[in-house]
Amino acid sequence: MKNYEMVIGLEVHVELATKTKIFCGCTTQFGGLPNTHCCPVCMGMPGTLPVLNKKVVEFAVAAGLALGCEITRHCRFDRKNYFYPDIPKAYQISQLYLPICRNGGIEIETDTGKKRIGIHEIHMEEDAGKLVHDPWEDCTLVDYNRCGVPLIEIVSEPDMRSADEVIAYLEKLRLILKYLGVSDCKMQEGSLRADINLSVREVGAAAFGTRTEMKNMNSFKAIVRAIEGECKRQIEVLSNGGKVIQETRRWDENKDTSFAMRSKEDAQDYRYFPEPDLVPLVIDEDWLTRIKLREPELRDAKMKRYMEEFDIPAYDAAILTGAKRMADIFEETVAICGKPKEVSNWLMVETMRLLKETETDAEELALAPEKLAALIGMVDAGKINRTVAKEVFGKIFMEDADPEEYVKEKGLTMLQDDGLLREALSRVLAANKQSVADFLGGKDRAFGFLVGQMMKELKGKADPGMVNALLRDALASYQK
Amino acid sequence: MDITKLTALELGRQIRAGGVSVREAVEAHLAVIREKENDYHCYITVRKEEALSRADAVQEGILSGQYTSPLAGVPVAVKDNICTKAVRTTCASKILGDFVPPYDAAVVERLTAAGMVMLGKTNMDEFAMGSTTETSYFGVTKNPWDITRVPGGSSGGSAAAVAAGEAGIALGSDTGGSIRQPSAFCGVTGIKPTYGTVSRYGLIAYASSLDGIGPVGKDVADCAALLSLISGGDRRDSTSVPQDRFDYMGALKGDVRGMRIGIPKGYFQAGLDAQVADAVLAAAKVLKEKGALLSEFDLDAVDYAVPAYYVIASAEASSNLSRYDGVKYGFCAPDHKDLQEMYKRTRTEGFGDEVKRRMMIGAFVLSSGYYDAYYNKALKVRALIRQSFDRAFENCDLILGPTAPTTAMKLGESLSDPLKMYLGDIYTVAVNLAGLPAISLPCGCDDQGLPIGLQLIGKPFGERDILRAAYCYEQETGGAFCGRC
Lengths: 480, 485
What we know:
The complex is a heterodimer.
Chain A: E1 4-15, H1 54-66, E2 70-71, E3 74-75, E4 78-81, E5 91-94, E6 101-110, E7 113-126, E8 130-134, E9 139-143, E10 150-156, H2 163-180, E11 192-202, E12 212-215, H3 220-239, E13 247-252, E14 257-263, E15 273-274, E16 281-282, H4 285-293, H5 299-310, H6 314-320, H7 324-337, H8 340-357, H9 369-380, H10 386-399, H11 403-410, H12 418-431, H13 433-440, H14 445-457, H15 464-479
Parallel strand pairs in A: 12-13
Antiparallel strand pairs in A: 1-10, 1-11, 2-6, 3-16, 4-5, 4-15, 6-7, 7-10, 8-9, 11-12, 13-14
Helix pairs in contact in A: 2-3, 5-6, 7-8, 7-9, 9-10, 12-14, 12-15, 13-14, 14-15
Chain B: H1 8-17, H2 22-40, E1 43-46, H3 48-64, E2 75-79, H4 106-113, E3 117-122, H5 156-164, E4 169-173, H6 180-186, E5 189-192, E6 213-217, H7 220-230, E7 260-264, H8 274-289, E8 293-297, H9 305-320, H10 339-350, H11 353-366, H12 372-395, E9 398-402, H13 418-423, H14 429-434, E10 438-445, E11 451-458, H15 463-477
Parallel strand pairs in B: 2-3, 2-4, 7-8, 7-9
Antiparallel strand pairs in B: 1-3, 4-6, 5-6, 5-10, 9-11, 10-11
Helix pairs in contact in B: 2-3, 5-6, 9-11, 9-12
């Protein structure tokens, strides 16, 4: 049995978070009734002309700079011609000959260590519409809402050798793009789509094997499954003396396998040529400088700042900045309540636990900073104790509950009434004579048990400080 | 007074002075249409009722001071590849036979804002591909000077309409000579402006890097007035040059003293009809007598202009016309069993032969393996032609030559031999490849009584130079040759 390794390169399409489309003024909002986010320009009506959205260029350049690319100062657009109903002009305006960014790379880290993944190029292009099959009428309908939404395609070098590396690369890419604010990178909504070019070769071989391209994976999990499956399939083909065919394969999530879509033989000739309706794009020094100056604080800088400004440990700072959404919530909450350590604590412990429990991606975290700040304020003011606070936090996380209303509604305000507490104390002492005796006999653990019984008696709402003090006093008087 | 014989500016003056009402102006032209249209077929669509009610609205606007343009109230014809809101715009093709744009082209907005009255949409070669207006799906247009002959093309309908008095003035489009050559054949004046002067927004593309909209009028001043109206930057067309609207009327001075006029020797060799050559050289002599300095020179690379033009224009056309697939608008072949068949049948039945020929040439020259040999090479030739003009303009202010090698051909003569038809574009296509402005104006007639066109080519944005020389020539010669048709 020969030893094989896989060679993977990625083409990642990212929808840019501009308000309007790349060549017209239509909204880029996801969804909407079919064909309501379009105009004659993005519908490719006769006589209409594209006008480049400058913001798209700025986002593409910002991405290129953050991904260590050279910026092509004189670039242009090209037409990619093909017939399909999802592309109303029958060509996509893209960049072939002079892409806006080239020769970059990012460093990733996996269990096997650090590694640089090269970025061959980034180019700008317009998205196509969507075909929707109507099984009732047995016909296919076209929705042009997505048509003209700006995309960048980030083409990596074939530098990855495992699914782990691919995921590390994608996660890093996504984090950088989210920090830049150039895309929301939602795989489910298709604003980040990765096509995987994969080949296998014998370990030590210099030449690449024949590759296949896989499309249609809409989660990291699906990507891992697709890579593993395709790698196995290619090795089997080769081991049986066969040849891998260069083809495009479509991942079927339900069947957990990929199917050949089209082979190289029926590959289209896109007849690219320079787009005559757009003038060459010149990115002068001045514009480049302005884009550079606008670059937001990226992750490394943020981590460093959290450690210095808020005195947060490196490990915590890494988790807090591990998702742009998390960092945003952290900063917004701190801005309201001014308690970085408390906020960090809630995010590091309870939030991470609930994210895991609900299998939610940290980037999808929905937690209102003002509610978390209110909760922290209530704990701080002694209105609720920590046990109650955890319950309330759960409600905020899961149901976006208002902490003050919830506490009020459920009567969870901390009990600090001396009389009530003393009554409970006498009931607990009377009902747990053995534990009192154990404590007096030197078993310190019994104290905790008694505290627990007190809290239970008071439905968890008692002020733990007062409970401790009262119990300690009572037991001390027994000892005497 | 025959209203339809007045120049557009004179008609505009009379309308503003109250001597002629806008309705009278429109009715007079509609009467000629009624009388002559069966013979000439200048229009694909005539908007009689709409023009009349618009005439009354414009009349009020003129009285209230809303419309002050010198062309306010003048009936205008618009080539049918220029989009008009709610008015069918066909490109003379079956495939767009029922296409009604939901928007006006930028130029149409300007005509409307100036209070001009659109009479209808003029006939043309299908998708502006042709030099005779014979490739129209809606039938041929005939030359008003001799109805056995073609009016030229592709803006043949616009040129014939102006020549016949079926419109006061018209808009055409010029990708390789489509304004100038029919203007020459029909004895009228037409301008192809510098690329970027007039917004292309709403002009249905044939070859985007060469297409331009321009005026077709009875004389130089009419064209200058309409060009002043439609030129200027437009945010919707990235290739339009941001600039204020030009006033070209100031260039009409009536003298050419000291102007340096270059005459390319190569233009007067084999292939050029002797009578055309004589008339054009006689025109040069008139300008010389008015104080212009003439010199001969060699215009290199222009020999390759026709092949380079047909490669580039066809390549762009193959892409621009791909959108007509039966999915969204226009003709869709019925009874298709799947998508491929729908595409094939729609495009097979929807396009005419000349359009198919150019789309196939275009797809071929862009295809992988042939791109460098054809398309890329044509781009290099284009760059050389530009340089060649740049060099020429170091020594002259404008270039003088014929518009076309012959006068109007007989109907049906060219269709059988497309290559011969392509070679007829020899004097016009280089101007589009270089993006330059040029004017064609009448400079005589041949022994058949057919008009001959004089072409003046200017530097980039040198419209004023060519207008000045053209106007001076027209003033000097009276502007009329062999009587109007």
